[in-house]
Amino acid sequence: ADFTLPENKDISFAGFEFGDEANFSKAVFGNNATFEGAIFGNRANLEYATFGDETRFDRAKFGDGTSFDHAKFGALARFDGVTFMGTTGFTHTRFKSPPCFAGVTHPKNLSLVGTLFWSENGILKRTADHRIVTNLRLLRGIAKEVNASDIERNLFIWERMAERGVLYKNWPPRAFATLLVFVYWALSNCGRSLVLPFAWLGIVNYGT
After folding, report:
1. Distances (CA, A) of 118 to 84, 126, 161, 164, 179
2. Among the listed residues 101, 91, 83, 168, the one whose alpha carbon sits nearest the alpha carbon of residue 137
3. pLDDT tens across 138-148, in order?
4. DSSP result, 68-105
5. Is pLDDT larger for residue 3 or for residue 23?
6. pTM of the predicted model over 0.85
C-alpha cells in the first residue's frame, strides 16, 4: 500500500488496535506517519516498509514475532515508551538518523542484526544537536543489553563523532574537550583502527 498518495496520506493509525498478523510489508509512508499508542498483536509484518521523516511509534505495543526487517526510516523516528512484548526483529533495518528509543519496555526482546542506526555518516561531524548524542547513547545501551557487540561498537564510534560535532559548535568555550575528541579520532578512528596507531608511531619514529 502507498500511504503517500493524496487519498491515503492523512490516514493516522494512532491508538489503532491491530489483531494478529497485521501486514504492512512493503508499505510506503510519507513524513509524519503516526502509530502513537497503537497496539499490534502477534506476528506483525512491517518488513521492507519505507517510512518518511518523523515517524511516530510512541507508546505503541508490539506482540511476539513482530518484524521490521529491511525496513527503511527517514530522520527523527521515535519509539519512545514502546513495549516489545515478544521478539521484535530489526534485521538490516536502516535509519537515516538515530531514532529515539527512550523508555522502551522489554528491550531484551529486540533482535538487532546488521541494523544501521545512522545511514548518513556525513552529517555526524556537522551536527550541533545534543539529542542525537543522547539517542546514540540510549541505543548503545540497548545494543549492549542484547549482546549486539558489533552494533554497540559502531554506536560508540558514532556517539564520539557526534559529540565532536556538538563540541565544535560550542568552540571556544569547550575548545580543550573538542581538541581531545579530535585527537582521539585522528589517532585511532575512535578506537576502531589498529592500523592508525602504528602508522602514527612509524611517522613519529621514522618520518623525521
Report:
1. 22, 14, 12, 16, 24
2. 101
3. 999 999 999 99
4. -TT-EE-TT-B-TT-EE-S-EE-TT-EESSPPB-TT-B
5. 23
6. no
